[in-house]
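new request in #modeling-help
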Amino acid sequence: MNRLRARRALFWGSLLLALLLMLVPLPVTLLPLKPYWPALVLLYWTLEAPEHVSIGLAFGVGLGADLLDGALLGEQALRLIVLVFLALRFRSRLRFFPMWQQALAVLALLLNDRVLLLAMRLFAGDPWPPAAYWLAPFAGALLWPFVFLLLDDLRARLRVRDG
Amino acid sequence: MALSRDGSTSLFSDSPAGTLRLLTYIALAAVLMVLDHRNGWLRQARYASALVIEPVYRLAGLPSAGVEAARTAFADRSRLIEDNRHLREALLMANARLNRMAAVDQQNQRLKQLLDVQRALGMNAQLARVIDIDLDPFRHRIVLNAGRRQGVRPGQAVIDARGIVGQVVEALPDTSVVLLITDPSHAIPVTVARTGLRAIADGSAAGDRLELPNVPISADLRVGDQLLSSGLGGRFPAGFPVGTVTAVRPDRSGMYTRAWARPAADLGRVNEVLLLHDLADPVGPPAPAPAAGPPDRLKPAATAPAAPRNAGAAP
């Protein structure tokens, strides 16, 4: 019971922290490198605990992010749905990749996410973004091993302490 | 979704149910986006959930506020003294200039009275602090720590010590969101200080400069020209610095000149801003003339439209 509660706290805590990290500012030069935190955390949980993750959850997290971001209601929801759907579909294969291949797969998913965002923005009438727009997925892929190991470690600690 | 009943996943699962669910959610998100684009639901939803959003903003702003506080706390004494001396000098200069301006202002008032012009623009400003969070690196917005309860209304102009920063686009109860003049969706009417040429300065996707897309090719516009707000449109007060022209080039068609400008306000590191309360004098077309016709007392008594209604109300 205790263990279940701790794991649930970790799950929701990491998602909330990802939303918060999305808002935390960076120095101006690093700004285009800011990874898409909710996507990384959702990806981790999709790979490691798919029984808790569904498209509905992605939709909810996306709506929360939209509410905080204030750009367009449903924008991030759509991006996260697609991301989680793809990750769930290829989960079995992604899980057994070595870390560097997994990071490459994450890069592909995040680039796809950027293309989707670009399509939505252009459709809404925004101008073509600068080249720095494409840097964030690379930063995300580079950070992926650390996010993965950190969350894995936290999860393992919870398991050990209760077991 | 990709899980089968016993909890194991197959390597090449392709369940039609999962795809169907994806399509349903995508359709839902698309409908939400379109409705929000048309009706501005997000604004209402955000206002309603401000109780949650605002603490999150404050929380996300904490790290940079902490860094700033630590910088002040551990800055060495000599630098603080230097800063202090610098600020003192700046204050003295500003006061001296203000005193001279006061005399000029009085003179101006007298002349205006002589000319019988009633356009007093009293400046009434409110100081607000920027909450340092980053909503989206490719949209240029900042969040202020004053909102509807502090009297902030959407549409107010925001300035700093050097020039125009932007305008309030959304006022939550205790915070507000400001669209910067460099945002690609923003445009501000300007006039060139040297020649009086009027133009529109758009934001740009790169976000660190302004663009003047359609200046006539014959117009006298040079690198280094100061751009002031022109006050047309009534959103921004006239006469505030907007930027400095950095490049002038003919555009691709050769019919117009395209110019770029660096914003006067320090948009990258803006920390405290002033919210202007007095909106500018409405400059625009005059109020519509009253419909021509005979004076009211000469009009035939308007009983005709009232009669049927009474008749309709009777059982």
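bot summary: The helical segments of chain A are 2-23, 37-48, 55-69, 75-89, 91-95, 99-123, 136-162.
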